[in-house]
Amino acid sequence: MTARPFRSIASVLIQRTIVLAVLCMVVFFCVQSWLLRSEHQRQFEAVMSDVANTSVPLLAAALWDIETQAVQAQLQFIAKKPAIGFARLQAAGGQVFEAGNSELAQQEAIRSITIYAPHGTQALGVLHLSGNPQYLWQGLQAEALRILLGYSALTASICALIAFMLKQLLQKPLSTVAGFASELTPHQLTTPLRLNRAPQPHSDEIDLLEQGVVKLQKALHEHIHNLDDLVDERTAQLEKLLEEIRHLSVTDGLTGCYNRRALQDKLPEEIERAQRYHRPLAVVFMDIDHFKQFNDQHGHQLGDEVLRSAAKHVAGTLRQGVDWIARYGGEEFVLVLPETPLEAAIAIAHRLCDALPQHAVPNPRGGLGVHQRELRGHGLPAGRGCPCPALARRHPGLPGQVGRPATGGGWRLNAQVAQRAQSLPNQ
Prior knowledge:
There is one protein chain. By secondary structure, this protein is α+β, with helices and mostly antiparallel strands. Among the domains are: about 10-140, 2-Layer Sandwich (Beta-Lactamase), CATH 3.30.450.220; about 260-420, 2-Layer Sandwich (Alpha-Beta Plaits), CATH 3.30.70. It is built from nine helices and 13 strands. The strands form five sheets. The protein has a four-stranded antiparallel beta sheet with strand order 2-1-4-3. A three-stranded antiparallel beta sheet has the order 5-7-6, sandwiched between helices. The longest helix has about 55 residues, at about 10-65. It is rod-shaped, with a radius of gyration of 63 Å. The two termini are about 85 Å apart.
C-alpha cells in the first residue's frame, strides 16, 4: 500500500473555510450588485419623473409659443443631467431638437414622453430620452469595487481569525498527540502525555483524546508487564521441562542411575581430565552372574527389583558429587571413581563383593525376600591391554594393568581403569 502525502487537519479546515468564505463573498457580492442596480434604476426613474414634472411643462410652453431657442435650451438642460445621455424632441410640425451625446442617437430610447399643449389635449411633440450607460456603469463599478474590497477585507479577517483559533484549539494539540504517539516506545509507556492547554470550564474532544491516550498507555504497560511475567513463567517451565528431558535422556529408567549414553559422554571427559592433570582415575565394570537364570526362575519383576536394589546399594557407598555409577546394559554397571588409585579401587571392589551378598531384596511374590548369599570373586594375574574396545579405540595410550577374567565370572581392575567387578546373586 502506497503511503499518502501528509496534510494536517487544521490546514484542510483552513482551506475549506477560505473556499467557503470566498463563495459566500461571491454570493453576497452578486446580491449586493443586484440591489445596487435596482437602486440605480430607481434613481433613473426618479430622474425621469423629475423631468416629466418640471421640464416637460416648460417644453410644452415653449413649443406652444414657438420659441425654438427656449425649446433647445430646455432640452440641453435635460441632457446635462448625469443619468440622461441624449435627449431628442420631435415636434408635431416636423421639427427635431437634439441635445447630449450624439453617439447615443442611434440607441433605442429608454423613455418617451408625449408633450401636450398647456391646458389642452393637443400633442405638441414627443420627447425621447436615452440613459447614460457610462454613468450607470461607473456608478455600478465604483459601488461594486467598494463592496468587493469591503467583503474581501472582512473575509480575510474572518479567515485569519478562524485559522488562529484552529491552530490554537486544534492543530497544536493534535500535533502534540501525533508526535507523542509516533515516538512512543515500550520504555516510554510510563511517560504521561501533556498538552499544556489553558484551563477550560468544560472538557472537549481534545480532553477526551488526551484521556484516551493516557488510558491506552496504562493498558499497554499492564499488558506488556503481564506478557513479561507470562514469558518468564513459560521460560521457567520450559527450562524445567528441558532439565527434566535432559535428566531423562541421561538417566536409566529402571535403576535411576546414569544410562549408557551418559556414560559415553561423561567417561571420556573424566579420562581426558585425569590425563591432563595427571590424576588417578578408576573405572569398575561389574555385572551379576547368571542373571538370565535368575530371571527365568523368579521372573523379570523380581529381576528388575534386584537390579534397582543393587544399583541403589552401590550408589549409597559412593562419594556424593565425586563418584558416579552408570548402567552399561542388562545387568552390567560401571562405577567411575575420580581421584582413586588402583589400590583404593581394589579395596572398594572388595568391599562391594563383601557387602552385596548380605543385601536382601524384597520378594513381591511374598515371603521374606531373596538373599544374595554367594558372590564369587577372583584375584587375577596382571596383563596388558584394555578389555573395553571403545575405550581402547578412543584412548589407545591408556596406561595401566588389566586383569584377565576367570572362569565363571568375577571382577577385573585397571591401574586407572578397574575393568570389571561381577557379583552373582543365588537363591
